[in-house]
Specification:
Blueprint: H1 5-11, H2 16-25, H3 32-48, H4 50-63, H5 65-73, H6 78-95, H7 97-106
Helix pairs in contact: 2-4, 3-4
Length: about 110
């Protein structure tokens, strides 16, 4: 049985540690990133070789680490923080009658 070079390229997988990092650090909101990075890996493997493809895949994986932290940060409700700020502003206005009077003069 003779294998062509194109079939050998499709059989080569990235190192297991890189695949683990990719699965671990990919944000749940972007499941398409894993497939995109693996497609890039196949392309780079065919063009420049395994070492180059491995280095670039590691760089790509490290580039999504900040994205994962940003996505987790957005899980907090900004509405709750906004309503808290409104309450604090209202309390300050009640405490400072002078400020309240000046606001009523500016905005009748």
């Amino acid at each position: 049985m003779v294998c062509s070079s194109s079939s050998l390229r499709t059989m080569i997988q990235p190192p297991k540690i890189l695949l683990w990092l990719l699965e671990r650090w990919s944000p749940e909101s972007r499941p398409d990133l894993e497939g995109d990075f693996l497609e890039l890996y196949d392309y780079r493997l065919a063009e420049k070789g395994r070492s180059f493809a491995n280095r670039k895949l590691l760089r790509d994986i490290l580039s999504i680490v900040p994205l994962k932290f940003i996505v987790e940060e957005n899980k907090h409700k900004p509405v709750a923080m906004f309503s808290t700020n409104i309450k604090i502003a209202r309390r300050n206005l009640v405490k400072n009658k002078c400020t309240r009077r000046s606001i009523s003069l500016v905005f009748p």
